[in-house]
Amino acid sequence: MTSDREGKRILIARLSAIGDTIHALPLAAAVKRLFPDCRLGWVVEKPSAPVVVGNPLVDWHHALPRGWLKSWTEVKKLRRALVRERFDIAFDVQGLAKSAIVARLSGAPVRIGFEKGESRELAHFLDNRLVRPQGVHAVDKVLSLLAGMDARAPGEAGFIFPPCPPGEKSAIEAHITTHQLDGGFILMGPWGSFAAKRWPLDRFGELAAILRAKTGWPALVLGHGPQERGAVAELVAARPPGDLCPAPEVSIPGVAELARRARLFVGCDSFPMHAAAGVGCRTLGLFAVTDPRRLGPYGPRGAAVYERLAIPRSTRERRRLDQSGMLALTVEKVADAVLELFERP
Description:
The structure is a single chain. The chain has helices at 18-23, 25-34, 72-85, 97-105, 123-126, 138-143, 166-178, 201-215, 225-238, 252-261, 271-278, 292-295, 315-319, 324-327, 331-342; strands spanning 9-13, 39-45, 60-64, 89-92, 110-114, 129-131, 186-189, 219-221, 244-246, 264-268, 283-286, 302-305. It has 15 helices and twelve strands. The protein is globular and about 60 Å long. The chain has two domains: 5-149, Glycogen Phosphorylase B (Rossmann fold), CATH 3.40.50.2000; 166-342, Rossmann fold (3-Layer(aba) Sandwich), CATH 3.40.50.2000. Helices cover 39% and strands 15% of the residues.
């Protein structure tokens, strides 16, 4: 390993999902603060790549297609790219066989991961410096990997996103002006990766009406892709004019840009919620089948609301659950939680 403290080559292996990739950004920020002249690399899978590509923290990246581990061609390509970088240290942030394999393929003599029980599959056999995670939230657990370097995070966790492309930023500004949102708006993220995480879309419409009456601010509703955007358009058409409007189609950095401009974000457990909390927007997360202590909006400006929690151990089990947990969460309870969050200093 390089003896020069400032010349280290450090790799982060956090492949997916988008929200979990966002949770690894504070590790990248901490590494750069501890070792300002290090070369920081990141291996990521393509759906999460917009969190990494163009990020000012990241000096090198390699984006993998889904299913890459089943392709000998992709594995060889990854191996060649990693060997050229000559990494000294690799962080296995994901704690799965595939992320541990990335760390091992890098050739880094120090491969830092979580101890057995916190990592899964073969990860703890492939990583060679195992850390017991500290804290409850996913961000704090990721930052505890720094103990494998005999270090700790300097100061508060920092989330740095790639800059929003200039054309997209201009489109966001035009959209805000066109819909007369310059005086402020509430950003809503009604989507989740599976049904049990989603609050009914019509309830977001009811919530928007209550919040506009209480605060004067309309809602801007996110939707990605034709299906979600079509559903948002139907919701907007069914509500009184001015309560809410559709957000423009934006990238992941664009979601972060919208959140920076919003008065507050309210939405389900998904990457827009984590992006909003990361940029310091007041953020309220709606929960039923994931643990808000571990996956809630990170930081002092975040809060979570739920009526009842049923948290299976595996994602596969969560995906089998119905929406009953989210259906139990009333519009009135969410509205009260939003207004309470507004009252925080």
